[in-house]
From TrEMBL:
The gene is tpiA. It comes from the Bacteria. Its EC number is 5.3.1.1. Pathway: Carbohydrate degradation; glycolysis; D-glyceraldehyde 3-phosphate from glycerone phosphate: step 1/1; Carbohydrate biosynthesis; gluconeogenesis. It comes from Enemella evansiae. This is Triosephosphate isomerase. NCBIfam families: tim. Involved in the gluconeogenesis. Catalyzes stereospecifically the conversion of dihydroxyacetone phosphate (DHAP) to D-glyceraldehyde-3-phosphate (G3P). CDD domains: TIM.
Length: 264
C-alpha cells in the first residue's frame, strides 16, 4: 500500500466574495475541529476565486489553520501585457499550495487545449505549487463507451513535458463532465475504472513507483452521502468537490471519511 495522502479539495468556482470566504473558512475550521479531523490522515484544501485568496491566506496563516488553499486557474504567461491574467508567481507569493489546471469549464468555455493545460501545470510546478490537473469525458464519449481511451489521451497531453520527479507531486482529478453539477455521480466502479486506468497508464509510460505516488481524485456531484464508496476505491485518493464545498458542514463531512476507522 502506498503512502499517498488523501486530499479533499473544494473548488468554489465563481462563488463567494472575500467576506463570505472568510466566514466559510472559519466555519470549516470549527467543524473540522469539532469532528476531530486529523490533518495527518487527509489534507483539506479550499480553492476560492482569485479575489478571495489574500483574505483566505491571512485567516489560515494568522490562525494557523490546518487547511490548505489554492487557485482555480493560472496564466500560461509569466508576466507582462496580458490584461486580466494572474501569474503563477503571483499565486506562489500568496502562499497557494495548489492550482487547478484544465478544469472542464476552462476547457469548454475558454477553449483550453491539452497543450495549454500542460504548459500551465509545468509553470505551477516550477513555482513549487501542486497542479490539480483535471481530465474527464463528456456524455457522448461515455455513451460510446470510450471513456478510458479518451481520458488517457487527455492525461498524456496534459502532462506533456513534466519530468518524473515533478510528476510525483501532481494531482490528477478525474471529473467526468456529465457528472459535474448535475447531481449524477459516477458509480464507484465507473470512477475506479478510469482512475485505475490512469494509474496503470502512468506505470506503463513512466514507472510503477511513480504511478504509486501520484494522487488521483474523483470529482462530479460528490456529497457526504455518496463519497464513501467512491473514496474507498483503491485508486481514488480523495475528491475534488464543487457545489458541496460551499457548505462547510457538508464539506467537512466528506473529509471525515478518512478520520473514521477503516475496515479492511
Ligand atoms: O467541477 C467540480 C469540481 O471541480 C465538481 O462540481 P460538483 O461537485 O458541483 O459537481
Amino acid at each position: 500500500m502506498s503512502d499517498r495522502k488523501p486530499l479533499i479539495a473544494g473548488n468554489w468556482k465563481m462563488n463567494l466574495n472575500h467576506v463570505e470566504a472568510n466566514g466559510l473558512v472559519q466555519k470549516l475550521a470549527w467543524t473540522l475541529k469539532d469532528h476531530r479531523h486529523d490533518p495527518a490522515k487527509s489534507e483539506v484544501v479550499v480553492l476560492p476565486p482569485f479575489t478571495d485568496l489574500r483574505t483566505v491566506q491571512t485567516l489560515i496563516e494568522g490562525d494557523r489553520l490546518e487547511i490548505g488553499y489554492g487557485a482555480q486557474d493560472v496564466s500560461v504567461h509569466d508576466s507582462g501585457a496580458y490584461t486580466g491574467e494572474i501569474s503563477a508567481g503571483m499565486l506562489a507569493k500568496l502562499g497557494c499550495g495548489y492550482v487547478v489546471v484544465g478544469h472542464s469549464e476552462r476547457r469548454q468555455y475558454h477553449d483550453e487545449t491539452d497543450d495549454v493545460v500542460a504548459a500551465k501545470a509545468r509553470l505551477v510546478l516550477e513555482w513549487d505549487m501542486i497542479p490539480i490537473v483535471c481530465v474527464g469525458e463528456g456524455l457522448d464519449v461515455r455513451q460510446a463507451g470510450d471513456q478510458v481511451a479518451y481520458t488517457l489521451e487527455q492525461v498524456q497531453g496534459s502532462l506533456a513535458g513534466i519530468g518524473d520527479e515533478a510528476l510525483a507531486k501532481v494531482v490528477i482529478a478525474y471529473e467526468p463532465v456529465w457528472a459535474i453539477g448535475t447531481g449524477e455521480v459516477a458509480t464507484p466502479d465507473d470512477a475506479q475504472e478510469v482512475c485505475g486506468a490512469i494509474r496503470r497508464f502512468i506505470a506503463e509510460q513512466r514507472h510503477i513507483d511513480l504511478a504509486d505516488q501520484v494522487r488521483i481524485l474523483y470529482g462530479g456531484s460528490v456529497k457526504s452521502g455518496n463519497c464513501a464508496d467512491i473514496m474507498d476505491k483503491p485508486d481514488i485518493d480523495g475528491a475534488l468537490v464543487g457545489g458541496a464545498s460551499l457548505d462547510p458542514e457538508e464539506f467537512a463531512a466528506i473529509a471525515r471519511f478518512y478520520d473514521l476507522p477503516r475496515v479492511g
